[in-house]
Every structure is written in structure tokens, then in C-alpha cells.
Amino acid sequence: METADWSKNKDYMSIATAGSPTELRQSRIACQSILLEQLNLIPTQVWMFRVNLMHDRVAQTAVQICEAQMKEAGYGSPPCAYSFIVFGSAGRREATLWSDQDNGLIIEGDPDESKTHYFEPFGNMLSDLLSEVGYEKCEGKVMCSEPMWRKTLPEWERQLQDWRTQLAWEPIRYLLISSDMRHIFGSDDLSKKWKESFHSGVSSNERLSTAILRNTVRHKATLNLLGQVLTERFGDHAGGFDIKYGVYIPLVNYVRHLSLQHGIWETSTLQRLEALQLLDENNLVEGIREAFLTGLRMRVNTPYISQDGLLSSSDYVADTVLKNKQQLSELRDSLLIVRRMHRTLQRQLRSAERRQL
């Protein structure tokens, strides 16, 4: 089944016709079951694209159901245009079948009482609805239920500017989260204006670039001095490997950093790499791409638990997988790329900090 055909799949199409959270949850589970059958039968990037099409459609339908619930609760229709947006892996079109919520709202115009009266309960209701459908609430509270991630466009513009100028760890972390923003539902124009506001002054600001680099360079060791893969020594995952934070996240962070440096607006890591390849003088991008795809493939194949049709995973590659010589070799090759990129970032950071003394 080609990607174009996936949009015609009956289980995928049924998501849009769900009229309640229960129906939406059931449609998601049915679609998810088909996707699990396709895992490893098609290229990883194609499979991920289908998974994220499903997530997008679930989110779009959830917003529409939430609007209907708001009417039933006596709040009426939205008082103005708004945009429902996503961040994190969803923003990068890299969400797994067990990813949690990372979302927000952009509300048209200046803040006023009528907007607060509607969008505060709307944000809470939508986050609860998504949780009911199977998306766990974000531990970091990056959700439309939270005032920080639910703002009018002028408020967002001021907040983004504050984050760009403060340069401390926490505001830069929020800025990096925001850099993966993607429009899902509502006013596309609001999302475009948000993007314009975000990118203004990012690539040309050397101190901001250094602060972003400082946040990006954090990375736990995954290879020992002999180049051997460092697995977990104790606990539930003893003998396993944390593929999310060992390979996937470091490469996401590195590619994001380069993209922000070069003013690239894409949010998908693979699309960012495509854009970077046009600027690549040292032919490094293809190696990063292969390492990233290895990380993606291993991540979506980590052991998972199914409860009432919904999945959860620790993102640890099982020790049994690492006993396979080919799998271990591919992981090690990816980690060598990660280590190389990390050392490059460290050199860049030292150089940038010396220039700013």
C-alpha cells in the first residue's frame, strides 16, 4: 500500500467520522492495529508517515468533538479564530504509537474576557479528551490546558521574544520545544504568523545561537573508550539500550541546531536533513540520515505493553536484540555518528564561548 493509498484506508478514514471520545478511541485502536501489521513490511519512514497521519486525524477530530462538547456545555462557538498546534515528536512527524501529548493553542487577537472564558475550559477539555483517546498527558505540561502553551498571537509573540533574549537554560529549552511546532487544525494563517515570529532573529543572533548550542550539547555517554555499546547495568532494563536518548534525541537535537542556524523552517528531522543536504559541503548528511533511520527503526520496534488496546513502551532496545550481530553493528555505527556530532558541537561551543568572552 503506497502512502497515497493509506489515506483511503477504511480504518484511517473512520477516524474522521467518530462522534464521541469513545468512538474516536475505538477508531484509533483499529487503525493502530493495521499499522502494527505493517511494521517492518514497509520502509520505516513510510510507516512513520502513516502513523503520524493517523495521529493528525485523531487530533483534528478530537478538536471538533471538543467544540461540540463546549456547545453542549453552554459555552457556544469559539469567539474568534484559533489554531491547534503540536510540538515534540508530533511536531516533527515522528510520534510513535505510544507518544504522549505535546500541544498548544494560538488564539486570534488581543486577550479579553470572552476569549479566556471560552479557551481556558476548551484547553482543559481538549487535553482531557486526548487523554481519554489514548494520549497520556505530558509530564512537562506542554499542553493546551496550560496557560504557557495557550495564548493569543500577540502574547505568543511577546513570550517567544522573551525566550530569545533571556538565554538561560529553561527559556532556551522552551524555545527549542517551540521550534518543532506544526499546525494541525484551525487557522493556518495564525500558525504561519507564529512561525514568522519564532524565526525572526534566531539565525542571526550569535548569543542566542550559543545558548541553543549549550542546551543541545548535553548528551549521556553511549560508547566506552573501546567503542563498545554501553548498556544499562541495573534495573528493569539491565542489558538493554535506551535508543530514544542514546541515538534518536541526540540526532534530533543536532539536526535541529543546524536547521536553526541556517534558517530552515521544516520541523521533520528528515525534511530538515533534506534541506541541509543542499548546504552540505562535507557529505555528512547522508551518514546522519542513516543513523537517524536506524534510531527510528529500533525505537518503533522496542518492546511495548498493550492495555485496553493502547500501547506503552520504555524505548529500551531489549538485550536479546543486541545479541544479534547485525543489529548491534548498526547500533554501534549510529552511535559513532552520534559521538562524532557531539564532539563537533563541543568544539563549536568552546569556540563560541571564547569569542564572547
From TrEMBL:
CDD domains membership: NT_GlnE_GlnD_like (cd05401)
GO molecular function: [protein-PII] uridylyltransferase activity
Domain annotation DUF294: ranges: 209-348
UniProt domain Protein-PII uridylyltransferase N-terminal: residue ranges: 51-165
Origin: domain of life: Bacteria
Identification of the protein by name: Signal transduction protein
Organism: Paenibacillus wynnii
Classification of source organism: Bacteria, Bacillati, Bacillota, Bacilli, Bacillales
